[in-house]
């Protein structure tokens, strides 16, 4: 729960509610950790993987629409800059 909460930027109770809802909807399955029985791990079901794939396609479509008229180089440079910012934010959290 803590790792998921941190990754999506919400508190643990909010992450717990989201995980319970996603599990009830059939998008996630929870199981005991193979390395630490006190911990639980979330995994996507096939329905969850399908939803994630659809979300990624939608994000790409919106990005293309938002950057209409941009050169391929400008798109790549922007994507790289955003990736660099995300990487830096993860380093700051560590």
From TrEMBL:
Keywords: DNA-binding. GO terms for molecular function: DNA binding; DNA-binding transcription factor activity. Residues 1-87 form the HTH marR-type domain. Pfam families: MarR_2. It comes from the Bacteria. SUPFAM superfamilies: Winged helix' DNA-binding domain (SSF46785). This is DNA-binding MarR family transcriptional regulator. It comes from Brevibacterium marinum. The lineage of its organism: Bacteria, Bacillati, Actinomycetota, Actinomycetes, Micrococcales.
């Amino acid at each position: 729960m803590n790792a998921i909460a941190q990754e999506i930027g919400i508190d643990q109770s909010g992450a717990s509610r989201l995980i319970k809802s996603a599990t009830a909807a059939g998008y996630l399955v929870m199981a005991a950790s193979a390395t630490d029985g006190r911990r639980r791990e979330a995994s996507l079901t096939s329905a969850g993987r399908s939803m994630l794939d659809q979300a990624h396609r939608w994000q790409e479509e919106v990005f293309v629409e938002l950057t209409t008229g941009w050169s391929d180089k400008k798109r790549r440079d922007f994507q790289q800059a955003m990736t660099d910012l995300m990487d830096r934010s993860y380093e700051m959290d560590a």
